[in-house]
């Protein structure tokens, strides 16, 4: 008996929360203790994290192809083990070489175990009807920073940074692995899968220019998201936010992401995802302008706007390729579309750190400009006409 879609969403969303909290959101809390203990500069720790993102970019298309053929269950179960190995290696690092080696292993896990893999797993199971499930797992995993930052800080306070990494590794084996094992088995396919509703006609493939615009949108938005994930506490402190409020306000990113996703799931779900993506792309520039003009009093508004926009755009990264290209070969195509984004992510902590060092909070003007370029790219992608959009929106709705 196949598990219900709600159970799949709950288990996969919880596993994604663990995966994001213990990888993507780890350096913001542990970079300082790591650099002090290992005797390396703080930027070196972020450089190792950037190497992990490069590795994840290269792994993504290969992982997507495996999910297209076998389904997500075996791939995601394997990445739970790889996450645990990488975190264990990080906990035992003794210098820069072992630090970078640990992050290379974590990069393998990130490239085959974060959202792109989860989205591909859902499309492999549900085809055109995966939009609701994609939104569902992002609703659950939207709390990754809210859970991850304070929990990592608490573990570091009680066990040290090495103990914190070891604890996260143990959680992958005892919690993440069983959760991923709850995914339904998918039929192995020798050719590219067509997913649910395979007999229905596929939407025509967009021209190459549309794919290029979409890749640019993903690259820019992930650059901004990664830069803020790594440097948000320092950025808030730089505009004069009280030290005791920095983490508390930063933790609002998670609830704001969930709020944005609820908006997409409720009011916007019947519209083509281009509409919600365009609205979301405007939120970071608006929040950045408020923060730069008003300073610390606008910190909460900035975090809420940035988080809500990031939450909706995360869904768009899964639903836009599905809406424009269809489910056939989704995993491999998603890996290719996200490759520039992953490379942009790899540079984001380092480059934005340099911008912060040179410009202070005014570095937000740069991230706001990049976000506006993403909005421009989304506006250049043709919105389907009412006749074209009607069958598409019907196939993307989650069945009652």
TrEMBL record:
Occurrences of domain Major facilitator superfamily (MFS) profile (ranges): 8-386
Cellular compartments annotated: Cell membrane
Keywords: Cell membrane, Membrane, Transmembrane, Transmembrane helix
Listed transmembrane segments: 45-63, 75-94, 100-122, 134-155, 208-229, 235-254, 275-296, 302-324, 336-357, 363-381
InterPro entries for the chain: MFS (IPR011701), MFS_dom (IPR020846), MFS_Efflux_Transporters (IPR050189), MFS_trans_sf (IPR036259)
Membrane topology note: Multi-pass membrane protein
This protein's name: MFS transporter
Native source organism of the sequence: Pelomonas lactea
């Amino acid at each position: 008996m196949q598990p219900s879609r709600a159970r799949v969403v709950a288990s996969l969303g919880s596993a994604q929360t663990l995966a994001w909290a213990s990888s993507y959101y780890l350096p913001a809390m542990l970079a300082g203790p790591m650099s002090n203990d290992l005797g390396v500069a703080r930027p070196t720790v972020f450089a190792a994290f950037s190497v992990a993102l490069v590795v994840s970019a290269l792994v993504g298309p290969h992982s997507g192809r495996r999910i297209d053929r076998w389904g997500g269950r075996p791939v995601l179960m394997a990445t739970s083990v790889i996450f645990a190995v990488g975190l264990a290696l990080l906990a035992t690092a003794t210098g820069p070489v072992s630090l970078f080696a640990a992050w290379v292993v974590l990069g393998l896990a990130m490239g085959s175990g974060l959202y792109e893999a989860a989205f591909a797993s859902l499309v492999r199971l549900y085809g055109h009807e995966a939009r609701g499930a994609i939104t569902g797992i992002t609703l659950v995993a939207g709390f990754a920073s809210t859970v991850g930052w304070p929990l990592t800080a608490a573990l570091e306070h009680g066990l040290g940074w090495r103990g914190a990494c070891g604890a996260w590794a143990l959680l992958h084996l005892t919690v993440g692995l069983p959760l991923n094992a709850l995914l339904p088995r998918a039929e192995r396919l020798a050719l590219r899968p067509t997913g649910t509703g395979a007999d229905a006609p596929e939407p025509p493939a967009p021209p190459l220019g549309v794919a290029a615009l979409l890749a640019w949108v993903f690259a820019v938005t992930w650059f901004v998201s990664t830069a803020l994930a790594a440097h948000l506490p320092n950025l808030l402190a730089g505009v004069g936010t009280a030290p005791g409020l920095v983490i508390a306000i930063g933790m609002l990113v998670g609830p704001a992401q969930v709020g944005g996703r609820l908006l997409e799931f409720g009011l916007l779900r019947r519209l083509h995802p281009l509409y919600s993506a365009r609205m979301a792309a405007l939120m970071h520039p608006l929040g950045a302008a408020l923060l730069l003009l008003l300073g610390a009093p606008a910190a909460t508004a900035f975090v809420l706007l940035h988080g809500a926009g990031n939450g909706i755009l995360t869904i768009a990264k899964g639903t836009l390729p599905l809406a424009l290209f269809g489910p056939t070969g989704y995993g491999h195509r998603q890996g290719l579309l996200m490759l520039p984004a992953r490379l942009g992510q790899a540079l984001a902590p380092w480059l934005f750190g340099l911008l912060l060092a040179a410009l202070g909070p005014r570095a937000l003007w740069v991230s706001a400009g990049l976000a506006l370029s993403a909005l421009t790219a989304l506006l250049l992608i043709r919105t389907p006409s009412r006749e074209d959009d009607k069958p598409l929106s019907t196939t993307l709705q989650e069945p009652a």
